[in-house]
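Honest question from a wet-lab person: if I give you the sequences of every part of a complex, can you actually get the arrangement of the whole thing, not just the pieces? Trying it with mine:
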Amino acid sequence: MRVGVLTGGGDAPGLNAAIRAITRRALEGGHEVIGIRKGWLGLLEGEAFVLDRDSVSGILHRGGTILGTSRTNPLKKEEDTSRLLSNIERLGIDALIAIGGDDTLSVALGLHRLGVKVVGVPKTMDNDVPGTDYTIGFDTAVNIVMDACDRLHTTAEAHHRVMILEVMGRDAGWVAAVGGLAGGADIVLVPESPFTIDEICESVRKRHSIGRTFSIIVVAEGARPKDFGVQVTQDARVDAFGHIRLGGVGALLAREVEARTSYETRVTVLGHIQRGGSPTVFDRVLATRYGVAAMEAAEAGRFGVMVALRGTKITTMELEDALTGSSPLSPDIYRLTQMFR
Amino acid sequence: MTRKRRIGLLTGGGDCAGLNAVIRAVVLSAVGSHGWEVIGIEDGFDGLLHNRIRPMRRESVRGILTQGGTILGTTNRGNPFAWPVIHDGRHEVIDASGTVLERLQSLELDALVVIGGDGTLHIAEALIKMGAPIVGIPKTIDNDIAGTDVTFGFDTARVTATDAIDKLHSTAESHHRIMVVETMGRNAGWIALESGIAGGANCILIPEIPYSLEAVVESVESRAALGRRFSIVVVSEGAHPAGGTQVYQSAGGPGTLPRLGGIGQQVAGSVADATRRETRCTVLGHLQRGGSPTPFDRLLATRFGVHATRCIEQGLLGRMVAVAGNTIVAIPISEAIAEPKRVPPDGELVQTARALGMSVGDAPADMESERN
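Yes, you can. This is the full assembly:
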């Protein structure tokens, strides 16, 4: 069997670990593997190369993806879709393993409906794929957020400042809540729970009144200040999947908190640092388990499925079910973050 | 009857990793080796004027060696020569330096150890001229104090910046993007240049070398022509285009300096427009000041702290401790801060970057005219 592998959407640490696991397991089973460059765009352009043992040697610990990625949606135009299907045939791909977030996986589902034999592997630092407990890249991202909180703590305390840390996560508060919880943030603001700026100022003042003259606020890029009624965006552009680029809520919050409380306030936007670097042990192991499970699903002829982590077990589930609904922050974790205000 | 010698200790200006290590070293050597009393002053000169002081004992500094920040607190708004007050409901700036001298006397301080950067040391120098018994200890992440080879806080900052560049590398490569990283450093490019070289950046823009946008674009495009479809551009917050000005995020006010920031976004926008390549900007900000100090910074801070108490013992007041080569020395503060230490545009470090094929943003024509 010839297996094609691609990575789509935003990159995340652990992608290379998954590519390596798929390739090694495939070769072990006597299959051929080809890597498709730049996600769905590469499949449109027919850019692929053979993956052998050497090409995946030494990549386990590297962030990014040796295959490259893109945010292309090949199902938007019919001509793209038919070009993609003919490329799959021309490249002799018997099974396609797509590693990506909800956008990449929704394309995989669309192709499955068109008869392509596809298996999905969930990856996103946002951790917002319904159907799995964890996605590749999330653990590394929250470790980086935790580390940033630790660093900001010392300088916040020294200067008696309010420090605002804006983190990624799109419409989900996982990164902010889990990273903030681990980093001892005083206030965590997530998209799932809109807030007013006066509430935040009140919490900060309350801390001051008991002698805590500094505060750490972790705010998700998609957090919703009720005062403005909308999410804050960097610009008006949208990508091929219709997503806006969130960003800027931290700066806005800093300006308002400083003006209303007159406490010195500074903002740090963590940005793409959260996507980069060497994956943590959790992400390496998760990606490796996912990769092997995806290859084994393909080998067993189970297509249209996504590998997933449920509790401590790796399972497969129908892509259809895996992508239904949304995956907001767990209320339990949100409640925990509120206990430390 | 001789009373116990008593010294005061304060930290001023922006914080950096290693401040607690130096506080610990001063307290342990003063109390332990010399048997003196140490008074900790909170939030720099602000605490001296408002009498926020506390005795510092061995227990007060236990466990702080590894902690970033400063247990004494600090402020960027603590200049007694330009002291913001509210008088009859109006904001005014007064000279409170006389009060500082009175406070030193009423506290019966034989010496005051002032730990600070360029701004705080200038205040110290002015107070020394008025007769204040001060020993200075330089600290700044910017590494821009001329009288010392290096300051503590700098190594931790450059480690943090290098780590960030490493992380951005993998995501830049995956997305074939141009990543712009804005570092701190004020008017000195040390953090940007050293972390840029250590992190393998492709283009480094520092305040000492005004850049041309064409050269930045050229460095990105020439890499792309070689099949390297991503680039890392490190921009020091004080960098500016040739013939252009620095970018500020706030203008400053009574007793506060304007704050640099925003050039990264500007460079990212211009490069994206010129190359039509996906470009993202990351501003490292206060992460560079925080966190546990590196072994280098812990050691340097500890040596500085111990040497400061030696200076007091020997009556060497009006001096700043410094490192020259591998030796800790004490030089007159006035000498140490006469000129800020900036990156020599033709120095070995810049040449090293060039030798690796990195761009420092100057147009090739400028390089030609420099050689002639």
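Two things worth pointing out. Chain B has twelve helices and 15 strands. The interface with chain A takes residues 11, 14-15, 17, 19, 43, 67-70, 73-76, 160, 163-164, 166-176, 179, 280-287, 289-291 of chain B (CB under 8 Å).
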